[in-house]
Records
---
Amino acid sequence: MQVDDKETLEYQSVQVLKGVGQAVAEKLERLEIYNIQDVLFHLPMRYEDRTKITALGALQPGQPVLVEGIIEHSEIKFMGRGRRSLLCYLSDNTGGIVLRFFHFSKAQQARLANGTRLRCFGEARRGAARLEIIHPEYQVVQQSDETVEQSLTPVYPKTEGVHQTLLKKLSDQVLKKISRGELVDWLPAAVAEKYRFPDLVSALLRVHRPDKDENVFALNQCSSKAQQRLLFEELLAHQLSLLQSRLATKQTTAKKLTIDEDDHARFLRQLPFQLTAAQHRVIGEILADLEQSHPMLRLVQGDVGSGKTVVAAAAARAVIDGGYQFALMAPTEILAEQHFSNFKQWFGEERCLMLSGKDKGKKREQKLERIASGNSQIIIGTHALFQDDVAFSSLVLLVVDEQHRFGVHQRLALREKGRFMAGREDIVPHQLIMTATPIPRSLAMTAYADLDYSVIDELPKGRKPVTTVVVSTGRRDDVIARIEKACENGEQAYWVCTLVEESEFLQCQAAEVTAAQLSKELGGVRVGLVHGRMKQEQKQSVVERFKNCEIDLLVATTVIEVGVDVPNASLMVIENAERLGLAQLHQLRGRVGRGGKQSACVLMYQAPLSEMGKQRLGILRQTNDGFKVAEKDLELRGPGEVLGTRQTGLMQMRIADIVRDEKWFPEVKKTASYIISHHPQAVKPLVRRWLGKADRFANV
Ligand code: ADP
Ligand code: MG
């Protein structure tokens, strides 16, 4: 089955399709669509039923539906801070709903005049008085005579400038081409037979254009045979790609270290605490890896506060005693600073160096020189460690902290950067990835099948679980009183501000306003403020003052999410908690409960809280266990959101869902090894088909 790429249909450029010129092709690239095959495997993410109109009186929240009615009345409501929304009251002879627009033009407003008949599609939610649809798709219709769609509507993932109609037109053309049978089916016949899968072409036809009488609900669960076949193949492709990547890594060479037991014990003795058994075990696993001549690729997962930093330090000790360099990359400057100050204590100031984006000019040059000469052995930094002019002299171990903030690309780029020649050997650094984002085991074994995996599943002794309460902003006064009381007792507190606005500027502004207000409300309490737009030194000095108990209440944006370590702080208030992800809330909450005191976390929400919101915040109230939080969050929101990988490309699945489709994993694993040994020629095309460009990372 050897085929030349250029010859086959699937690798022809999208530009052979009608309606695709240079400009459209460029837009399609944003969806990673380059060739015919990419169009074919750009699969609907869900389906909509626009084949029937639902009566307004029968509407249920949470389901996208087609409705029709007459506009009774429209008005503009002002919502404070200069924001307004347009409300249209729509009714039919069974009931009524509100259409709400946050963005609207004059022309649009004019078109939505009283008496207009509108057909809308959208999802109803509970509003203040009745059900609302926010920003529905709508069209003006004359009488109720216009026809509805005759088949189910596939909804494709889209991007700016690429709309559903275009994607539908393109897939129409491509589906015609493949029905002539020019597409290679790489799934071995034995496998398809075993699971009774339909052939590739019929599966694709059905998934892109399901029959009208297929059940939309079932389709949206991906439970049809055609969908199952495709998602199986996708999971398989990911598995193959990870196995390839792992294999490629294992074939490179890393520095083999000799671990001296006595030196290690001496390092542990100088610590102000005893390691937990879990820390001991994980350090042992890491040191054993470092004694190998192929690179370590290990993920260390440990809940917030489980003590990951010292685990990294124990490994660093072995590296620098051997005369080599150790680098630690953190996602924020505050966190990098925190690590830097810890490492200076453990290893002495002269061996350590911190590089951040803020270093400029002469100072930066001097630092780069110390890195390149090997003068500094412990290098701590942010993304700044990536920049082109940073060259290490002998990087043997690279630690990436809080990995969910970094994409795979960055991780691999850094690994490349660390390559150096030792004599005639090309050396790749060992890599350790540390994350507090709890990764359920099943996920760890698939999304990270290229990594070995260690868990610190124990917290240091004496930690008391944080008591979490969920209250509405209506009870703000009680919360204020609680802070006052805590501070009177010599405790310290955090107040975390969040905003819907993406803009960091607005977030910081809101934090400033809140800090001023709280300082007025809380007479005797010393209030400090830290946010992302402050200078690094300013931030650092505020955090320092908080540490030294010169500040009682620290108002902050989510910049404090990771890395701030003040054991005396025992109360945390999080505003608008319903807007944050559970993992993020859990991470924030981990800032308290670090000392021996009973700590509390107050999750404040803006009423009304949706059913989903209630469930999600309820999870945090019920458990302090990061694993449980993550598992629930995964169920509720899906892996892309939870792992923060949506933007990074890792595990961006077209049709499979690692939580929903978990039952397939054992079969996928078996099939992957079967293909590698019996049909090796299918590996590359399968990976390329499903991972497209993403597969370039697998071969670094
Ligand atoms: P995380 O896993 O969240 O990165 P850190 O490494 O920041 O946790 O550790 C949290 C705090 O716990 C730090 O103050 C650290 O010094 C302390 N710590 C770490 N290990 C232990 C231990 N075995 N016993 C007591 N305190 C510890
Ligand atoms: Mg940490």
Note: The pocket of adenosine-5'-diphosphate (ligand 1) is lined by residues 273-276, 279, 302, 304-310, 436, 460, 565, 594 (CB under 6 Å).
---
Amino acid sequence: MDLITALEGLAPELERGLDQASSLEELEGLRVDFLGRKGRLAQIMGRLPQLAPDRRPAVGQAANRVKERCNALFEARKSALEAGRDAQALARFDPSLPGRAPWRGSLHPTTLVTEEICHIFTGLGFEVVSGPEVESDYYNFEALNMPPEHPARDMQDTLYITDKVVLRTHTSPVQARTMLSRKPPLAVVAPGKVYRRDSDLTHTPMFHQIEGLMVGEGISMAHLRGTLTAFVRAVFGGDTQTRFRPSFFPFTEPSAEVDISCCMCGGKGQVDGEPCRVCKTTGWVEILGCGMVDPAVYAAVGYSSDVSGFAFGLGVERVAMLKYGIGDLRMFFENDVRFLGQFA
Ligand code: PHE
């Protein structure tokens, strides 16, 4: 067959092929078939040397025309198929669906409860202060009426850094620091970490306390009771009962421990006929220690014996466990996001 006729047959044939192609892959196959290095066009052009030299230019021009035509057909079909594919993808895409919210962090329950308690006390006129976690033996013990060899030092399994420097075992040293740097009247709360050499199901070597201290003229046990009762009701609800039990701390006299009616069983000691696990059927749970500041502490910080005041110290994790019904202290320290995320 005449080469020019053969060349001119290519474009219509390609067009039919393109019409039937339904995917971009098939399209690429056709392109290789017709225009590729060993494709139909190349094969026809391979016969060019057989022609007389004077006929070759006309065939060359025909080949270029056919090639252009084929390329144009090919590109047109390609755009059509691509548009179809995009339309399909768009049809699957629902722009009215809500977006995926990015994962957000939240405050740790210890932080939440600390903030809530501090907020309650600032509302009662207290100021928030802080003190160091690495503390001298003097502030942690001596200024608080626990001289060397005092048996009460054994009550707190102290982590020593040197003979005279400890990780504070409670937030009470902030009492002494505050009184040394300020004159009465004063009312402060001091949240922070405390450390004890103690670790089991219900104790961790680090936990959080909030210390409270109010000193002035004529501050009495009644103020202590009123303040702590208001605090308990703000945190646990207005129906919560409080009970002040006599106790002992070297830096307060008299001293008490405060129990609240169990928030798990409502003070009944039973939940659905089963013994309450939180209060062990007593109906009460202990939440803090407190008392009237011991005169020996005023003497240590150089206050006159005319002033009086109260102090208290509470465990933040303990309050959080009761408030949120958290059964296991270790939850606070494992940083499991499934637990933490519930406080968002
Ligand atoms: N510091 C005591 C403790 O950690 C609690 C307390 C604070 C008691 C203030 C009385 C007054 O157990």
Note: The longest strand covers residues 206-216.
